[in-house]
Amino acid sequence: MEYLSVLRRLRAPGAAPQEVSLPKMYAIAKKLAGVAAGSAAWVTNVGNEYGQVLVSVLTAGEGDGLTNMAAGLMRR
Questions:
Q1: 17 near 38, Cβ under 8 Å?
Q2: How many helices and strands in the chain, by DSSP H and E?
Q3: pLDDT, tens only, 15-29
Q4: Strand ranges, E, within 1-76
Q5: Taking the complete model, does pTM exceed 0.90, yes or no?
Q6: Disulfide: which of 14, 18, 40, 52 matches 58 by Cβ 3.0-4.6 Å?
């Protein structure tokens, strides 16, 4: 469950910025199993003005839902 600890560190309020490498993100996505296996086709990284990744969103595909999500993030 290493990927859960990585995700918790990324989401922790006040956590020191850290770089998450692409192989690390791939390892997190690869550990999706069971019913969700093979469903993560798209990954969207949300970052700030300093180039830090704040959250990564794994989705099954591109669609109107991603547009609504992005619009909501921009309003914040």
A1: no
A2: 3, 2
A3: 445 555 666 666 666
A4: 42-47, 53-59
A5: no
A6: 40
